[in-house]
Design goal:
- By secondary structure, this protein is of the alpha/beta class.
- The protein has one domain: NAD(P)-binding Rossmann-like Domain (Rossmann fold).
- The protein contains eight helices and seven strands.
- The chain has helices spanning 18-29, 41-53, 69-83, 106-132, 156-176, 194-197, 201-209, 219-230, and strands spanning 9-13, 33-38, 59-63, 88-91, 138-142, 182-188, 241-244.
- A seven-stranded parallel beta sheet has the order 3-2-1-4-5-6-7, sandwiched between helices.
- Strand 5 (138-142), helix 5 (156-176) and strand 6 (182-188) form a beta-alpha-beta unit.
- Helix 3 (69-83) packs parallel to helix 4.
- The longest helix has 27 residues, at 106-132.
- Bound molecules: NADP nicotinamide-adenine-dinucleotide phosphate.
Length: 258
């Protein structure tokens, strides 16, 4: 039996939509107190009241841009003020614009690294003090199969950022071990979110056909994996990844799916 998360203080960056909102809902249902973070205040307020109404723990919104160190520091300070501490940081905020390298601009590269890699590093850095005061601090990064394992045209810059997050994790987990903080990552396959819906129905159909479980993932699928890493019982697991992709990375060819 897992120790309940009742009353644990959790920050979910990018918790106002998609996977982050799913993680926030899973944690709220487990009784945690959640701060969902994003840049758009309307989407943030809407998500917080929707999650709060769904029941479970307390949910509120903090407006912050993870690519700003000052915002990351304020996000942690506001959480500690509201909830009296911080136990779990879900570094989930990310963007995935689609552009092939031949058309990619320097600004495209800077923008995706600013949110996905620099944003992850700044939020974890800002949270170290508060997490070290928790009896078991947890960091859960949302990476991807794209980059660390697979490739997809249009996402060379994105794949580089998602692999970069794992490189960061594998050293920072050693640095933070002395505080009892664990740092792990979930690696989603194709998960139905607002962001993915924007890629169109054809994309979703093609993807579902290439997945052994024949469906795209749900945000709950990722939320439950994150919940495991956040548990007290996962205290001896650090610097590790869990792939949640319906088996998508496994088939050697289309024949393997027949
Ligand atoms: P999404 O639906 O587009 O949601 C992205 C969230 O991140 C929103 O809450 C957004 O809010 C926030 N965000 C973006 N940039 C931010 C910034 N600079 N500062 C603060 N918040 C920011 O995307 P998603 O599909 O849920 O993806 C979430 C994470 O999962 C990403 O790291 C992505 O790489 C990863 N992932 C997704 C999939 C998938 O299939 N969907 C697969 C693998 C990995 P604002 O726009 O208001 O800031």
């Amino acid at each position: 039996m897992f120790t309940p998360l009742t009353g644990r203080s959790v920050v979910v960056t990018g918790g106002t939509k998609g996977i982050g909102k799913g993680i926030a809902r899973t944690f709220a249902e487990a009784g945690a107190r959640i701060a969902v973070v994003g840049r758009d205040p309307e989407a943030g307020a809407r998500a917080a009241s929707e999650l709060q109404a769904a029941g479970g723990g307390e949910v509120s919104f903090i407006r912050a841009d993870v690519s700003s160190g000052a915002d990351a520091e304020r996000m942690v300070a506001e959480t500690v003020e509201r909830f009296g501490g911080l136990d779990v940081l879900c570094a989930n905020a990310g963007i995935f614009p689609d552009v092939r390298l031949e058309q990619m601009t320097e600004q495209d590269i800077d923008a995706i690294f600013a949110t996905n890699v620099k944003g992850t590093m700044l939020t974890v850095k800002a949270a170290i003090g508060a997490l070290s005061r928790s009896d078991h601090g947890r960091v859960i990064i949302t990476s991807s199969i794209t980059g660390p394992i697979t490739g997809y045209p249009g996402w060379s810059h994105y794949g580089a950022t998602k692999a970069g997050q794992l490189g960061f994790m594998r050293t920072v987990c050693i640095e933070l071990a002395k505080y009892g903080i664990t740092v792990n990552a979930v690696m989603p396959g194709n998960i139905i979110t607002e962001g993915l819906a924007g890629l169109g129905e054809d994309y979703q159909k093609t993807m579902a056909a290439s997945i052994p479980l024949k469906r795209l993932g749900t945000v709950d699928d990722i939320g439950y994996a994150a919940l495991y890493f956040a548990s007290k019982e996962a205290g001896y697991v650090t610097g590790q990844t869990i792939i949640v992709d319906g088996g998508q990375i496994l088939p050697e060819s289309l024949e393997a799916l027949a």
